[in-house]
């Protein structure tokens, strides 16, 4: 998503769809951002419009970029929402979609912990999903990036209300338990070829203004969920040592301590 947000021309119109209070921070006023959700968020959000994704109150070909960040799986009328995206985005515009793979440990835990969590639509292959979106929106699929999970939805620091009792069966949601659990799952994926730390996919359509890195970023923050390519962390000299021997880094977005893994060992993760 950052490839789009950091390279699009000033003044571009951006639709942040199914986002609650917002799925990204963009406060410099360079863009016309409209945030849409079927429910009004609990916190204040500027330029918010309450609407059904399948009945958007915008004229045709209005937006340069549409962001659907972890929202397609929640839509009651998925086909209608995709048709509306295709209607409101410019033919020269770009679309970003991120969704979970419903066959993963991450999605299973989310649905178990949140008693479904509102995941109405289940996606099992990036290829089939890309074909459906391409066919409905008329935007060409240009890239797919596999996404790793940090299980940040288990982080008790992210709970606005009292954490569910079930969370105690998963280490209580402490950052120490998540720190080591995600690292162990990454190692199992690397050496045993499993998909235990895999989350889903980010798909790009239309005309994104920047080159899309389709590699898998395994360093995903256990608190804020931000992903960072390992070579950027290495070049930035952000690595520290945990327990004197485990490589770790402070998340550039929120400062939380995470254990470090090298992306080059996970090039096959998420391939379908």
Characterise this structure.
This protein is an alpha/beta fold and 272 residues long. The protein has two domains: 1-103 and 114-148 and 198-214, Rossmann fold, CATH 3.40.50; 150-196 and 215-272, no CATH class. The protein has six helices and twelve strands. A seven-stranded mixed β-sheet has the order 3-2-1-4-5-7-6. It has a three-stranded antiparallel β-sheet with strand order 10-11-12. The chain is globular and about 55 Å long. The chain starts with a helix and ends in a 13-residue tail after the last strand.
Question: Key terms for this structure?
Answer:
single chain; 272 residues; alpha/beta; Rossmann fold; three-stranded antiparallel sheet; 12 strands
Break the fold down into its secondary structure elements and pairings.
Blueprint: H1 2-5, E1 13-17, E2 32-37, E3 48-50, E4 63-69, H2 78-88, E5 89-100, H3 105-113, H4 126-137, E6 141-148, H5 175-192, E7 198-206, E8 219-220, E9 227-228, H6 230-235, E10 239-242, E11 246-250, E12 257-259
Parallel strand pairs: 1-2, 1-4, 2-3, 4-5
Antiparallel strand pairs: 5-7, 6-7, 8-9, 10-11, 11-12
How many discrete domains?
A: 2
Strand order of the largest sheet: 3-2-1-4-5-7-6
Task: Name the CATH homologous superfamily of the largest domain.
Answer: Vaccinia Virus protein VP39
Overall geometry comes to globular
């Amino acid at each position: 998503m950052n490839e789009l947000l950091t390279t699009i021309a000033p003044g571009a119109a951006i639709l942040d769809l199914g986002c609650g209070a917002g799925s990204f921070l963009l406060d410099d006023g360079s863009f016309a951002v409209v945030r849409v959700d079927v429910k009004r968020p609990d916190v204040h959000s500027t330029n918010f419009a309450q609407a059904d994704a399948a009945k958007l109150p915008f004229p045709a070909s209005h937006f340069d970029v549409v962001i659907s960040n972890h929202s397609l799986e929640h839509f009651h009328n998925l086909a209608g929402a995709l048709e509306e995206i295709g209607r409101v985005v410019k033919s020269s515009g770009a679309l970003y979609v991120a969704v979970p793979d419903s066959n993963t440990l991450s999605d299973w835990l989310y649905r178990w912990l949140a008693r479904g969590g509102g995941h109405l639509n289940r996606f099992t292959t990036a290829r089939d999903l890309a074909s459906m979106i391409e066919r409905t929106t008329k935007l060409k699929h240009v890239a797919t990036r596999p996404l790793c999970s940090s299980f940040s939805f288990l982080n008790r620091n992210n709970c606005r209300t009292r954490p569910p009792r079930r969370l105690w069966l998963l280490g209580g949601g402490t950052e120490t338990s998540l720190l080591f659990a995600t690292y162990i799952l990454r190692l199992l994926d690397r050496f045993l070829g499993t998909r235990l730390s895999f989350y889903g996919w980010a798909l790009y359509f239309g005309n994104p203004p920047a080159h899309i890195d389709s590699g898998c970023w395994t360093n995903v923050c256990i608190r804020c969920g931000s992903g960072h390519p390992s070579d950027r962390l290495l070049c930035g000299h952000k690595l520290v040592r945990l327990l004197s021997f485990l490589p770790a880094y402070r998340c550039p977005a929120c400062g939380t301590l995470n254990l470090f893994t090298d992306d080059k060992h996970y090039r096959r993760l998420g391939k379908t």
